Amino acid sequence: MKFEQRMYARIRFLDVLYDLYEAAFEDFFHKLMCARHPDFLDVRTHGNIGDQGSDGLSLHSRKLYACYAPQTPDASKVQAKLASDLKKAKDKRGGQFDTFVFVHNDRRGMHPEIAGALAKATVDHRPLRFEQMGSRRLWQECLGLDQVLAEDVLGCEIPIKDLVYGVGLEDLAPLLKHLQELRTPADPFMDLPDVPQDKLDFNALHGEAREDLQRGMRHSHLVDAFYDGGMLAVEHDEVARGFRLYYEQVRAEWDDPEDVLWQLEMYVLGNGQQPRRVQRNARVVLAHFFERCDIFDAPPPDWHPDTPLRVPA
Known about the structure:
Blueprint: H1 3-18, H2 22-36, E1 40-41, E2 56-58, E3 63-68, H3 75-92, E4 99-104, H4 112-124, E5 129-133, H5 135-143, H6 147-154, H7 173-182, H8 197-202, H9 207-217, H10 221-227, H11 231-253, H12 257-269, H13 276-291
Parallel strand pairs: 3-4, 4-5
Antiparallel strand pairs: 1-2, 2-3
């Protein structure tokens, strides 16, 4: 899909998710995961045996999924549901899974008490692993669908014609606001972070694109400060994962690294015209994820700048 189609799909995805609770949320989750993963089993309840502690199983990755999507979230009830589903899954499906995935519909992120319950479970139930899947992870699964399947899951046609959006990436809106408030003109002679110039060379980033990233690196510490500590660290990893998935898709469609960087900038800002200060903040965000190697690739240890062509992905 083109960038404009992805943005349209994201808006539609958020609209759909906004009204999904309980069984309707579980139905959407089943539809999405069946479209995305051939090995996913959409477990349904049956008679007096119920679902035996599972709302879905992935055969290859050995993951068990448990959904909880109340209309009015209550942390204590969610914790009780988590404990109940986990006990039932271990009793009824022992040996069928290695990872327990808690799937929820809270678009704001995970409640601190529920995050604490999951963290405690990872200690109490070793070697079982735990993951959570909220709106960001569900959207990342949508990104892996082709257009036909995405239209089926979202229940709408995704227009082919170019559309104009002035929206930014919702997950990054607080970060962009943070950068706008704190970013000050940098000393042009200050030391850059320790990012090997070889990475810029390896990815064939030269001229203005290279300069934009280097200027962004002078402020990228502000992104680290924004995500430092607590549940924001988990959000940081989720946002980074989204960047990586989108980068891999864009790289498959565009050969020129400058075009790839341009597509990534639109991922942050949308394709509508933005003020220059907002564009500069977006480049700080891109520089940060470039430094972390979430976007673009680090050269292999034996690579040298004199190598005439970039190693193909």
